[in-house]
Amino acid sequence: MTVHFIGAGPGAADLITVRGQRIIGRSPVCLYAGSLVPAELLAMCPEGAEIVDTARLSLDEITDRLIAADRAGLDVARLHSGDPSIYSAVAEQARRLDAAGVGYEIVPGVPAFTAAAAALGRELTVPGVSQSIVLTRVSTLSTAMPPGEDLATLGASGATLVIHLAAHRIDQVAEELRGPYGGDCPVAVVAFASRPDEIILRGTVDSIAAQVHAAGVTKTAVIIVGRVLSAEGFPDSYLYSASRRRTDH
């Protein structure tokens, strides 16, 4: 039997992958991440499935359920919002499953930052402006950032910066960004990306905090920083250039 860690996407139920949907539809046990996973996905579970909200469970309680299902010969759909590769706590769960000899697979999903970029109608890698994206967060009471991963250091490259789990500390974020990016650098905040209650805020390093406070955005948001957000007059990508030599293979 297998535990399937499934990226449930950023919020819209139809942004889950076909593979993820099929696994949900055949798994007799489903564990999901509270209000972050849309109810429409849970409706895909087979009739009689055990459906468990993990919002109030500890890590050990969650993995105990995964192991128990495996011991009972049952496949498990373990739903995480966004994509399991970032900020999902899959690493901690997988470590415990490895120790218990339980097999698992990871099914990728649409991450929140790509849904946010889509909502903004922007590409985050623009020729001549930025070809790199840094995904990061800020320190919290639960998890500190490793040395050298503060916003000022990461922003020194001038790359497009995507900050997760930080809307509640927008004043601190703006202050740390002012040095490497400048007060006039474009910033966008997208909360609840792809959902009916999606909120899109556009401003600058100097102005974005006031907008975030006024909108009451404190969670489920992505902060995107960089000149790509207002880029104009940039050169076309060589990928589709008429001067590029093309072959049939």
UniProtKB/TrEMBL annotation:
Pathway: Cofactor biosynthesis; adenosylcobalamin biosynthesis. The lineage of its organism: Bacteria, Bacillati, Actinomycetota, Actinomycetes, Mycobacteriales. It holds the Pfam family TP_methylase. Keywords: Cobalamin biosynthesis, Methyltransferase, S-adenosyl-L-methionine, Transferase. Residues 2-208 form the Tetrapyrrole methylase domain. This is Precorrin-4/cobalt-precorrin-4 C11-methyltransferase. It comes from the Bacteria. InterPro entries: 4pyrrol_Mease, 4pyrrol_Methylase_sf, 4pyrrole_Mease_sub1, 4pyrrole_Mease_sub2, Cbl_synth_CobM/CibF, Siro_Cobalamin_biosynth, Uropor_MeTrfase_CS. One of its GO terms (biological process) is cobalamin biosynthetic process. One of its GO terms (molecular function) is precorrin-4 C11-methyltransferase activity. Belongs to the precorrin methyltransferase family.
